[in-house]
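Q: Give me the 3D complex with adenosine-5'-diphosphate.
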Amino acid sequence: ELNNNIVADRTFKTEQSKPIPKPCVKFEHAFHNFPEILDEIKQAGFEKPSPIQSQAWPVLLSGEDLIGIAQTGTGKTLAFLLPALIHIDGQLKPREERDGPKVLVMAPTRELALQIDKEVKKYHYKGIKAVCLYGGGNRREQVKVVTEGVDIIIATPGRLNDLVAAGHVNLESLTYAVLDEADRMLDMGFEPQIRKIMYSINPSRQTIMTSATWPHGVRKLAESYMEDPVQVYVGSLDL
Ligand code: ADP
Ligand code: MG
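A: Here is the predicted complex, encoded as structure tokens.
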């Protein structure tokens, strides 16, 4: 049974826009090839995808850009995180051959960045390694972990820019970039840092944005950095 509180559309529709992939109603529909992920979801005791997940997963697994607009507590973290793991899996080489981080998740605050990091670390998936970079954290330790090799970077924009400028983090290998709570990041004045970072990432990347609201500034960011994104609104907080 589909949740009819989801609305999906193309933000900047063109003649070339493809149809939007259909929402999935069961975890198995999205992750049938990924038993480790299904096991972890079962462990968590979840019954079915939340509305945002049901639409986000098919879109993201087909490699498209996505804007997810939904209130806090609607399951946005796993909406972008599980496809990120699968995205990395497709490119995963033995650790000694890995050529740098593939996934970047930017979040407005250290608390949010740490929450995302905690969620990633529940999915001990094929040796995928994550680091969390935030102001006030031990900079030397963060640099050490990055230097040893990571697949996912979760970061606040200020600390990330600082480490990029100092030459400790290289963004060239990234192919999947998430701006989590984009509206809050703009409210906090992170637009220059976000623009610097996004400008440095290969434009053929997959780009994801989440936001609770859809103000002009967020639309501008989407226009600058996304490729025919699918926009998903969730009208209710029901999981
Ligand atoms: P958001 O980022 O939208 O604020 P979160 O991703 O932090 O929301 O998720 C909120 C809570 O819902 C978390 O505790 C998470 O574990 C839980 N959750 C995520 N997906 C599901 C699901 N499909 N069913 C039930 N609970 C879920
Ligand atoms: Mg969130």
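A quick observation: DSSP finds ten helices and eight strands in the chain.
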